[in-house]
């Protein structure tokens, strides 16, 4: 199945799929445990020491690959966002900061005004289910997962650095804009300048504009993936001449928008 078609199906069936996930025993148990126990958590130490809650929260913020790093997570959540040298400000992966802000621990991780709030609790549950849904799609088609994740995060983008610090978002934008992979080796300020010159970041607040950008990404992603290129409608159309004869087509993204590269730094 082509990625553009898979994206349409995933979006059309999203609510139904998430409903099924919610009722799946393994996820239903995790959600029930979270709802029953999270209100009792007021410190970072308590969260990290409660295995079930800790794992649930880590999965909600797509940090399952960091579950083993309890000491790091505790230090990060207990750090002071207003201190530029604090761990939360030094970790480059945006998932950590998102988690820090969403959980809302205060006073060095010794208090939390959110955990007893039912609305906040349901927000974390919704985030958990959305993350599981996207990861399930990505397991079947990496480009599809990247497209869905980009759509989830796009509205929060304020600067080119918000895109560049997220490896997946950066890949989506570079391909959609026709920038070659070599752009990733440029100085970060140069990369930011290139993105700003080709993409009006304000349009990322517009779902229609985001849809258009994501469609470009999935079409080009399939065109570059030889296992999917034959299923890509754009490639099929471009590969068929007016008289119906077939002409193989090679797409060189570097030629679409070449950008001189220079050594990093």
Explained architecture:
- 61% of the residues lie in helices and 0% in strands.
- With 265 residues, it is mainly α.
- The longest helix has 23 residues, at 118-140.
- The radius of gyration is 21 Å and the shape is globular.
Which characteristics define this entry?
265 residues, mainly alpha, 16 helices, 0% strand, globular, disordered C terminus
Number of helical regions: 16
Q: What distance lies between the first and last C-alpha atoms, to the nearest angstrom?
A: 41 Å
The level of helicity is 55-70%
CA radius of gyration is: 21 Å
- Silhouette: globular
Oligomer state equals: single chain
- Please tell me the overall pLDDT: 88
Give the helices and strands as they follow along the chain: HHHHHHHHHHHHHHHH
Main sheet specs: none
Share of β-strand residues? under 5%
Please report the total strand number as a whole number: 0
Structural class: mainly alpha
Write the layout of secondary structure elements.
Layout (H helix, E strand, L loop, with lengths): L2 H10 L1 H10 L1 H13 L6 H6 L1 H10 L9 H9 L8 H4 L3 H10 L14 H23 L1 H12 L6 H5 L2 H10 L11 H11 L8 H18 L8 H6 L14 H4 L9
Helix pairs in contact: 1-10, 2-9, 3-9, 5-9, 9-10, 10-14, 12-14
Describe the structure concisely for a colleague.
The chain is mainly α and 265 residues long. It has helices at residues 3-12, 14-23, 25-37, 44-49, 51-60, 70-78, 87-90, 94-103, 118-140, 142-153, 160-164, 167-176, 188-198, 207-224, 233-238, 253-256.
